[in-house]
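Duplicate of #3305? Posting structure anyway:
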């Protein structure tokens, strides 16, 4: 069965309204009230305080559904992260004052967009600005998993390194190997470009084939199943949809070569944990480098016990530059909405 994966449009990050705006002309002589659910980078909080009446979460504590609803009373806009769930029930309980949810993330599967549409609430996200940072982490995960970096670092920190020998901690060399991508959007294309620096041959699956100029000689496969046997490294870059949930299951893992390395910087729900952990334990694939997990931060504890995993705590966008740009992009969308301009990153 072919999985439908949509490549995001390529846009450049631009902060479109840098100057303070007098909201009184369009907000009945008052400044919009914005609820910010998590602690933001200082530059983002400074812009929020300059332009809006802000309700912060200074303790950076994860808010429950009831707290989200209660803190939204009288609020015009909500700026959440992917950590907050806006289910249909939560959205139904939001006060009528809420007009826009501008999520500080590319993914928006934590928001029931159909329920938001029914309530007339605009939803926006922050695409494109984290592409380079996330692609960097994909390469880090590939190298860390291939060269047993986590195991080696533990040896050093535990003072357990005792000797060297020709067979000591041998891993996999990625130079000249095949790099497979599921989801050739902006992040997938940048990750492929970085992999070319290791002289890797690029293979990919996407819902539709890219124009030749964007392929850069990558080899297209019409289905995920056709792609997998050609992957020495499989890098996942697709969004979570009903079609991609547990995309990497046992049947598809069994199509990978036994020396394959799985890399996931997209969303944990794309991977069936039981299937991947079994394959790693039984040696049916070589290793995995994972930055995202289902039910994070409550990840499956079996991953930590495996020597052939390289694990990170969702660091894909974790650079100062990227986290600032994510906040600015979210605020660009809020600014646009309250100025009566269509937000550039509108989801619904």
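Output from current build:
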């Amino acid at each position: 069965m072919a999985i439908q994966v949509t490549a995001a449009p390529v846009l450049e990050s631009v902060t479109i309204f840098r100057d303070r705006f007098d909201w009184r002309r369009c907000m009945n002589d008052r400044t919009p009230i914005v609820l910010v659910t998590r602690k933001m980078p200082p530059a983002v909080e400074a812009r929020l305080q300059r332009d809006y009446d802000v309700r912060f979460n200074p303790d950076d504590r994860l808010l429950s559904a009831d707290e989200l609803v209660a803190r939204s009373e009288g609020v015009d806009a909500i700026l959440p992260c992917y950590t907050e769930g806006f289910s249909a029930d939560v959205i139904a309980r939001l006060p009528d004052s809420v007009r826009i949810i501008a999520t500080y993330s590319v993914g928006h599967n934590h928001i029931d967009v159909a329920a938001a549409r029914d309530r007339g609430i605009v939803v926006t996200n922050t695409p494109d600005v984290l592409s380079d940072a996330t692609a960097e982490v994909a390469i880090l995960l590939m190298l860390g998993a291939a060269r047993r970096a986590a195991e080696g670092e533990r040896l050093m920190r535990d003072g357990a390194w005792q000797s060297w020998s020709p067979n000591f901690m041998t891993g996999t060399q990625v130079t000249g190997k095949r790099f497979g991508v599921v989801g050739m959007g902006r992040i997938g294309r940048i990750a492929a470009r970085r992999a070319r620096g290791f002289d890797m041959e690029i293979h990919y699956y996407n819902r539709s084939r890219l124009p030749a100029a964007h392929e850069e000689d990558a080899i297209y496969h019409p289905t995920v199943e056709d792609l997998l046997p050609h992957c020495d490294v499989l890098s996942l870059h697709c969004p979570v949809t009903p079609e991609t949930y547990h995309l990497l299951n046992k049947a598809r893992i069994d199509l990978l070569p036994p020396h394959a390395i799985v890399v996931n910087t997209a969303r944990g729900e794309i991977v069936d944990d039981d299937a991947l952990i079994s394959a790693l334990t039984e040696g049916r694939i070589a290793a995995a480098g994972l930055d995202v997990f289902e039910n994070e931060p409550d990840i499956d504890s079996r991953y930590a016990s495996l020597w052939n995993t390289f694990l990170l705590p969702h660091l894909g966008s974790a650079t100062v530059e990227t986290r600032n740009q994510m906040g600015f992009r979210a605020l660009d969308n809020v600014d646009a909405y309250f100025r009566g301009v269509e937000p550039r990153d509108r989801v619904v």
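Confirmed duplicate; merging threads. The chain is about 30% helix and 15% strand. The first helix runs from residue 42 to 51.
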